[in-house]
Design brief:
single chain; 293 residues; mainly alpha; 3-stranded antiparallel beta sheet; 55% helix; globular
Length: 293
């Protein structure tokens, strides 16, 4: 059992590039699962059933584990058994239908940095679509741009050399900083995913293609986000929630009101914000306060 957990953690670290904190969370959650299973006479993962996983989760709830920790626990279980199934170690995934507690299914306006990282690990980056989706989610959170702008991004707008995104909205031109994770995700998509999705009839400058080589629809992207949120054990996540979360994370890390509004291209500032002197440049503010700068 321990060997499979080590193999899973190595895979997540090498292929998914998860943080050290996330790795520790995986190990803690899966060791908790092993301890429970062994205490109940189960010594191989092939013996684990959906009923036993539900009993394990109920046991964790009775022990007083917080709701947010239960959600993380379920996400770890989903990722682990999905890994075992795709490796051919298990014939069926016993965690496929495991859901988060009902109270956690309510719509929320903000996700934590840890929840964000779980969401970003869900796309399968071994496939063109997964590479595309990971890049789209990274850019969405890195910049806070509106979905309509994301879906219509053109190749010349992406300046990886300068870690920047050039955005035109009406008569307004803006340069938005991109963090290294977003640049890495875009590089991987451009190198290994975009050409596989591109068709003869495709717009040659469009950045993100759908399976038909055209522009992705809002409905198509929402569907992908919903699937990833479910796999991560999160309530339904929308682009607006990612934008709100980015704002919340920036402010928690010390960004000024004016700096955030300038980054997002907001046209008006409230009276309470106007008196603040904005001493930081956007790149400096971004590096100092964005969780994925």
């Amino acid at each position: 059992m321990d060997a499979y957990i080590q193999e899973f953690c190595n895979y997540r670290k090498e292929k998914k590039q998860v943080s050290e904190n996330t790795m520790l969370a995986y190990r803690s959650d899966l060791q908790r699962l092993i301890c429970y299973m062994q205490n109940n006479g189960i010594h191989t993962f092939e013996q684990v059933t959906e009923t036993q996983l539900n009993s394990f989760i109920l046991s964790a709830e009775r022990e007083g584990l917080k709701a947010s920790s239960i959600v993380r626990l379920i996400s770890s279980i989903h990722s682990f058994f999905d890994f075992l199934t795709k490796k051919g170690i298990l014939k069926e995934d016993p965690a496929e239908r495991i859901k988060a507690p009902r109270a956690e299914q309510a719509k929320q306006e903000i996700i934590t940095v840890e929840e964000l990282e779980r969401l970003l690990q869900m796309p399968e980056t071994e496939t063109p679509k997964g590479l595309r989706d990971r890049a789209m989610l990274e850019v969405l959170y890195a910049t806070g741009i509106h979905l309509s702008s994301l879906l219509t991004l053109q190749l010349p707008q992406v300046q990886l050399k300068y870690r920047a995104l050039l955005l035109s909205e009406g008569n307004q031109n803006r340069v938005l900083p991109l963090g290294q994770p977003a640049c890495d995700a875009l590089s991987a998509y451009l190198e290994h995913g975009r050409e596989a999705l591109k068709k003869e009839t495709s717009n040659p400058n469009l950045l993100f293609y759908n399976k038909s080589g055209g522009e992705m629809t809002r409905q198509g992207f929402f569907k992908r986000m919903t699937e990833y949120a479910k796999k991560a054990g999160l309530p339904n996540i929308t682009p607006r929630i990612l934008r709100n979360s980015m704002i919340h994370h920036l402010m928690n890390n010390g960004a000024s009101y004016a700096g955030v509004h300038q980054l997002l291209g907001t046209k008006r500032l409230s009276a309470a914000m106007n008196y603040e002197r904005h001493l930081q440049t956007i790149p400096d503010m971004y590096k100092q306060t964005h969780p994925r700068a």
